[in-house]
């Protein structure tokens, strides 16, 4: 057996022992308080970033580029894995979490500004991001290096995903929609691993958000107000 798999199973044994009595209330049904949409990245720990150790509390979705969009016959739709907890479990909060140095955003940026060849499955994911990121690429300030450009586009991508949810008829207006960035590269002021709120229900002005949400004003920040 692959040594990493053995280590994972050992870790799972410890998990099972610690969590044995935490599933009593959620064995037959789930009613998560929020759905979180994060990027598929080994550095993005979807439950640990929130300090969550409670089964049933968060409905976690991970994909390349923290997308809420999927392509259907009729065009773009809210992804089923994002919509499911909202439509069927009473979840009334959705959080889209990008992260600094995002590989999906980097690849999409390269695909829009240069040639990039990826396997078909990855290309499909990038194609879902391209139309949403292309206006952001065109609006980038001059003189940015690659890393600075990508981190601005990380915010832009989160904004576009939140915008898609705000405009969707499938998402009730009662659902709170929050966009955020997880920083482990010292891009924002704050500790590594901190989450910075950049968008609430489509509002992305830092001053406006801080006025509207004074209880979390110190967690609201952006690097690009466009």
TrEMBL record:
<feature type="binding site">
    <location>
        <position position="102"/>
    </location>
    <ligand>
        <name>Zn(2+)</name>
    </ligand>
</feature>
<dbReference type="GO" id="GO:0046872">
    <property type="term" value="F:metal ion binding"/>
</dbReference>
<dbReference type="GO" id="GO:0004089">
    <property type="term" value="F:carbonate dehydratase activity"/>
</dbReference>
<protein>
    <recommendedName>
        <fullName>carbonic anhydrase</fullName>
        <ecNumber>4.2.1.1</ecNumber>
    </recommendedName>
</protein>
<feature type="binding site">
    <location>
        <position position="39"/>
    </location>
    <ligand>
        <name>Zn(2+)</name>
    </ligand>
</feature>
<keyword id="KW-0479">Metal-binding</keyword>
<comment type="similarity">
    <text>Belongs to the beta-class carbonic anhydrase family.</text>
</comment>
<keyword id="KW-0456">Lyase</keyword>
<feature type="binding site">
    <location>
        <position position="99"/>
    </location>
    <ligand>
        <name>Zn(2+)</name>
    </ligand>
</feature>
<dbReference type="Pfam" id="PF00484">
    <property type="entry name" value="Pro_CA"/>
</dbReference>
<keyword id="KW-0862">Zinc</keyword>
<dbReference type="InterPro" id="IPR036874">
    <property type="entry name" value="Carbonic_anhydrase_sf"/>
</dbReference>
<dbReference type="InterPro" id="IPR001765">
    <property type="entry name" value="Carbonic_anhydrase"/>
</dbReference>
């Amino acid at each position: 057996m692959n040594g990493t798999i053995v280590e994972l199973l050992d870790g799972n044994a410890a998990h099972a022992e610690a969590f044995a009595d935490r599933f009593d209330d959620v064995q037959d049904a789930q009613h998560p308080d929020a759905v979180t949409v994060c990027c598929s990245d080994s550095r993005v720990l979807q439950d640990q970033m929130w300090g969550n150790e409670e089964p049933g509390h968060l409905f976690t979705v991970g994909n390349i580029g923290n997308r809420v969009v999927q392509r259907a016959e009729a065009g773009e739709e809210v992804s089923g894995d994002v919509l499911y907890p909202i439509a069927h479990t009473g979840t009334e909060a959705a959080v889209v979490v990008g992260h600094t140095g995002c590989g999906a955003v980097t690849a999409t940026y390269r695909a829009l500004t240069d040639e990039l060849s990826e396997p078909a499955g990855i290309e499909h994911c990038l194609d879902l991001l391209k139309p949403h990121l292309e206006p952001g690429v065109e609006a980038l300030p001059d003189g940015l290096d690659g890393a600075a450009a990508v981190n601005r586009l990380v915010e832009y991508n989160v904004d576009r995903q939140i915008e898609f949810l705000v405009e969707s008829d499938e998402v009730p207006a009662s659902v709170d929609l929050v966009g955020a960035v997880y920083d482990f590269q010292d891009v924002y002021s704050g500790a590594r691993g901190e989450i910075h709120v950049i968008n609430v229900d489509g509002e992305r002005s830092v001053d406006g958000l801080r006025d509207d949400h004074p209880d979390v004003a110190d967690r609201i920040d952006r690097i690009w107000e466009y």
